[in-house]
Each structure stands twice: as structure tokens, then as C-alpha cells.
Amino acid sequence: MGLCFTSFLWAVIFLFSSVSVAQTGFSVYWNMQSTMPALSTGSNFQVSELMPGNNFGNTQFLNSSSTSSGAYPGASGDLNAALASRTGPLEKGSNGSAYLSFSITAASGYKLNLTSVQLAIRSTTTGPQVCALFSNADAFNTPVLSQPILPNGVWQYVQLPVTGIQPKSSLEFRLYGYNGVGIAAINVANWRLDDLRIEGTVMPESLPVQWQYSTISSFPEFVQLEWGTTVEQNSKGFTICRSQDGTHYTPIAFISSIVTNDMSFMNRYKFIDSFPPAGPLFYKLLQVDWDGVVNEGVVRYCFREYLDTKSAQPSNFKISATSFCFTYPFVGEATFYLYTIGGTFLGRTTHFSNFIQGVAIQIDVSNTEFKSGTYLLVVQQKGRIVSKKIAVIK
Questions:
Q1: Among 115, 216, 334, 391, which is least packed by CB within 10 angstroms?
Q2: Residue 85 burial (10 A CB sphere; 0-12, 13-18, 19+)
Q3: Domains parsed from the chain with CATH numbers
């Protein structure tokens, strides 16, 4: 008998148009003429005033002396923020290191992403020799950035990129000064700041990625999903869920996001479901943020045909006195039973195959010795039972 079964190949591609992500840039600038920003551009966010903390008795936040005029390109001059900083290492508790704080809050349904900080700083011989920016994204534990300060009374202007802060709906920042030496005087400024500029982006919470395409292809051995994105913000990865009724989904895999700084670069993903059941199948992509937010993604459908076991035929017979061997094409798990034509049970075996292929099967027969005659081979797979008559001639 020859091997005869119908291989099934089905593929369909869904290509959908790009979803525009309403991501906009923002910029907040303090020239230190007041505690409120002198300039704020962008939309869907609000910013607080600057507030001093642990100011070592100094009640003056703004001071007219030590102007920054002409000290660096674009210096606003005039007033600047003045703080009295205690000497010693970083201490974030009450009465610890001096800091300036501010917060930025996104409008409902949006998130903030900080990208850069620009700042002019000046320190005296007893003032801080390091300033560092902390945020509530990790409860002020790890500095977002840090910058050495020369304690020589000379203005420094720094421009620092920001990485490592995951987007949040509200971000609070504290700019600490520390590592001063000697004995600082109470109420006497030894640390000054000017021309603080914060830049970043505002993005919708519900659209952290820009989808470009999604495809599904069903092959005899597996189902393949592919998708592409061009913009990913705060994306940890994608959870792939599968359902047989389109209602109850089960997570079956997780694919991590591709990290790239090129917003125009196409991120391409592929997932292969190696053991899909037969029948209707629904696959759902869930995009997962780093902060745990799960965003519903696309749903794709395919139908996995059942293996036509009626057309599958055993072949390559080998018969001994105590065993019956043959080759049979199937995928998944199958159990084989051997009976006499009169219904007497002779033996059984169970096998598993990853692909539709001819699998070598051996059924051991211990109660009797094979004789010429007709036997019944029964194949049970996925709840379906197929019986085949086998003529044995010795």
C-alpha cells in the first residue's frame, strides 16, 4: 500500500495601514527670574514651579548676585537659583543634601518621556562637587544622570541626554547637590543654578507602538505569525495568546521588544506555534509596557484542517512471529490497536509526531503467533477513530 494523504497549505496576509501615534515633543525652560517656567512649549502636560529642599536655613530661593550673564552662550544673566548646601556625601533624608524639585504631569490618557536636561551650575569651595537628578520612576533610588561640579566659582553649562526612565503619567524630579568639603555656612549660598531646560515627549498611553503590518500563515506542521512596528515607546514586548472559540484566550509565548533608537527602523517579529490544535484558531497580540500596562493588539484567524486519516494508509509492512511493523503518516499523538477480524485484541502502542510524516510503528503481539488472514488496525487520534483491514499472507 502506498502513502497517500492530503497535505494542507493555507496562508493569508492581513496588511493594515499605519496607526499614527500622537507623540509630541515638549520643552520647559526656567531662566530663574521666578520659580515658574519662563517658557513652556508642547501640549497635553503641566509643569510645577521649582521648589528648594534641605536648603540649610536659607529662605531665599532667588538671588540677584553672581549673575551668569556672558558666562556661557545664551546665558540669561540677572537672577539665578541660590541654595545653601551642606557638605558631605549624598543624603536624601530630611536635613540632608540640598536639592531643587519640580514635577511634570501628563494630561489624562498620556505619558511622559524625558529625553534631555540642560543646566548651568556653579559651586564655591564648600559647595557641592556633584549634582545628580533623581526621579519618582524608581522612588528616587537611582540617579537618572550625574554631573561633576568644579568648586571654583565658575559657571559650567552642561547638556545631558536622559536614558533609563520609563514613561509615566507623572514624573517628579529632584536635582541634588552633594560631596562638598569643609564647613558650609548656614544661610549662605554655595551652589547656584541657572537656565534649566527639560525636554521630552508626550505620547498616548493606549498607543505605545506604531503597527505596520501583521500576517498569519498556516502550514501542515505549524502556524506562523509575523508583525512589524516602527515606533515603540515603553514597550517591554508582546504576549501571544491563542483561542479556539475567539473568546477564551490562553497565553502561549512572549516576545521581547527590539531595542532601537531609530524611530524609522522597521522592527520585525516572528513567532512559530509548533503544536497548534486542529480546527478554528484565533491568535491575539498583546503589547506589554514596562510598567505592566497591557494594550490589546491585533487578532488574526486561521483554520487548521484535521488530518484526513481516512486517506492515510499504512505501508512498509514487516511481520514477525511476535510483532507487526508498518509506517503510518500522522501529526500529533496517535494510538494504534491491532485486532483479529473477529474482534480479539492483540496489542497496542502510542506514538507522537511533530510533523505530518511517515512514522515507523511497531505493535508487539505476545498472546499469539501471526498467521495468514485478515486483521483490523484501529487508529485513534484527536477523538477520531479510523479502522483499516490488513491482509497478512505468510
A1: 391
A2: buried
A3: 10-20+207-304 (2.60.40.10), 24-204 (2.60.120), 315-392 (2.60.40.2550)
